[in-house]
Amino acid sequence: MQVPILRMNDVLIVTLGEDITDEEAISIKHDILVRIKETECEGLLIDISVVDLIDSFMGRVLNEIAEMARLMGSRTAITGMSPQVAITMVELGLKLEGVYTALTVERGFEWLKNQKTGA
Amino acid sequence: MDHFKSLRTIVADRESIVTEWMAQLAAERHELHELLGSEYIRQQSETLLIEFPRLTVPGTASPDRERDSYEGVSRWLQNISLRTAQHGGSPHTFMPYLLRLKAIISERVKDHPEMTMQDLYDGLTALDRVFDRINHLYYDFYLNRREQVIKAQALAIQELSAPVIQVWNGILALPLIGAIDTQRAKGIMENLLREVVRTKSPHVIIDITGVPIVDTGVAERLIKTVEAARLVGAECVMTGIRPEVAQTLVMLGVNLGDIVTKATLQAGLSYILQRIRQGEQEAAFADTKILEESVS
Description:
Keywords (chain B): Phosphoprotein
InterPro entries (chain B): Bact_StressResp_Reg, STAS_dom, STAS_dom_sf
CATH architecture of the largest domain in chain B: Orthogonal Bundle
Oligomer: heterodimer
Radius of gyration of chain B: 34 Å
Protein name (chain B): STAS domain-containing protein
Number of domains of chain A: 1
Domain STAS (chain B): 161-272
Organism (chain B): Tumebacillus lacus
Mean pLDDT of chain B: 85
């Protein structure tokens, strides 16, 4: 499954779909990193509002993406996590430390914009 | 041989049994009389006696037939036990009433003419088993009914116990009251997250003034709630930590980590309002900067 990675100003936007297999997760991770290098964007926004299940693998991949993006000079915001997913993540002990989480894409975008200017 | 037959002939004398039964209840000023009224009891007693001859002695008929034969009495029990419970009665009030009937019938079995010793024994055994079955059914209904009430109350308590209040645009407050156990903590967490997402509120104040004991278990659950709220995109401030609670937490070595804590709900609210203002300024600053960049 090909996941579109959109660019808006200086931010890359990725929307994750409902069912993502482990292989797809790894290829998405790869694609995102390649795009960051190409575009030299300083912000990455991952929207997971349609995802209703995240397992430990997917949780780890999200953490890795954020960490790798940070090494490449890009901040990560994850938006729209559903309550059920959040509860599962907490139960699994996945805290997504170092990742900014926001309720809506709009708020995530705002945060990334503020980060960029270093305000 | 149907030992129940002799009982049926005895019970057929409905009028006199009911009269005797009611007279005895009235004589001892039975509680049920006062609860439900003597007229109602008289009617119900007659209904029971009409149903009585249809019963079979447990174990003597096929299971299906046995169930069918007790259907009428089941319905009767359901009605009267519900009514008794609604008026504050319990098995302590109902059972003596029912067992009084058994005593009356036993007495009549004994006085029945043309009874051999064997018939007498068989008749009384049959009577015993029928009443055992009725008791059993009654307790089933009673316990079921009790359980329903308890479940309904538990639900009501859960709903009452963790109201999520919108105190400001984008700010929710969660005043916690009473002991927090695992089940409640789970409900509170789910409820809070649902409200956060529904109202799109990025700020939450969790006030624990009303929580009597905060031990490691409760603290862990609160931390989990804060973490889950952060994941959906809301920042939590914890308020109302009383001196004794602060002492226990430190003594237990519980680390609340990065959770922002404030003394009072008011302090928590003003902290959040300040954060919001700060955020707006940053956003405005970022906007002007982007504007400047695009101009130059």
